[in-house]
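#onboarding

Welcome to the new folks! Below is a worked example of what a typical request in this channel looks like: someone posts a single protein sequence, and someone else replies with the predicted structure as tokens. Don't worry about understanding the tokens yet, we'll cover that in week two.

Example request:
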Amino acid sequence: MHHKLETIKEVISNYIEINEEEWRSYSSGFSVQTFRKKEILLAQGHLCRDVFFVVEGLLRVFFVDGEGEEKTFHFSFENTFSADYESFLKKMPSNYSIQALEDTTVVLMSYDMLHGGYKILRNGEKLGRLLAEEYFFIFNDKIQAIYTQSPLERYNRLIQKFPNILQRIPQHYIASYLTISSVHLSRLKNSY
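Example response:
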């Protein structure tokens, strides 16, 4: 478990300054959990009780629309956080599901732990704000891309940001994320 917490410590240290005493006190609240490929970490309609930090593996954030079709909203790779942050903060049913696309190990940060960090850590409130900002940027980038970029531009941006994504994620999830059909995605891939 110690190795898994070192990874999240490095990432948190990129957000805020944290000393060893603060870290010892704060990190005691973390728990580590492993999920099998295809396992659901959070089901749409349930309360999001934790923020998931991906140590190893890959998560897909998706929702089921009114027609019963799955729509992929986001992918969370190693060293990133994942949650339905609105559900987490407002303690309301989640609009999203989160699924492991590979065997995935996560560090769990509970609501109480995040808010306890505001007291334990000198820069705890800054950490909470920066995590919320990160979540906002994910939403903003997604919405902006849908309205301002062509499918080819969205595809190129995805490949640039995650070069090995085609080897790790099934094509139909990538197509859903790009808001195009699998056939359209095949055409985009073959145009290279």
